[in-house]
């Protein structure tokens, strides 16, 4: 009898190519396919302790960003950020202190998740990078929905 259980592919970020693209050290030989989604995880898990006893309850890893595989070779793949968010970049924007903008109508744009905290250039400055070489990655299982996964990514 064949097993239909899906296995998660785990690997690491091999290189950050641009503010939206990265290379993962897993490819076709590992079961990676075009369109597959990976979670880039925080390299250091957070230790969760019981505040009353000090007992270690477990560890969690935050999801930094989700990426979708665009190209697959035998031993690695290239993946890109893909999620968007509707953001008010015009008037009545509560994040802006400009009096002029307060009286302008809202202007909504769709911004794309990036791999950098303050994206302003094509290549990622390592000091501003949200994702680092060596960060762990895990493929999403077909039962997981990407819109249910919160990330700490920024929006370009």
Question: How would you explain this protein's 3D organization?
Answer:
This protein is mainly β. The chain is 3% helix and 37% strand. It is built from one helix and eleven strands, in the order ββββββββαβββ. A six-stranded antiparallel barrel has the order 1-2-7-6-3-10. It is globular and about 55 Å long. It starts with 9 loop residues before the first strand and ends with a strand. The mean pLDDT is 81.
Primary descriptors:
1 helix, mainly beta, 156 residues
Give the topology.
Blueprint lengths: L9 E7 L4 E4 L12 E5 L4 E4 L6 E5 L2 E10 L4 E5 L2 E5 L10 H4 L5 E7 L21 E4 L14 E2 L1
Antiparallel strand pairs: 1-2, 1-10, 2-7, 3-6, 3-10, 4-5, 6-7, 8-9, 9-11
A few lines on this structure:
The protein has one helix at about 100; strands spanning about 10-15, 20-25, 35-40, 45-50, 55-60, 65-70, 75-80, 85-90, 110-115, 135-140, 155. By secondary structure, the chain is an all-beta fold. β6 (about 65-70) and β7 (about 75-80) form a beta hairpin.
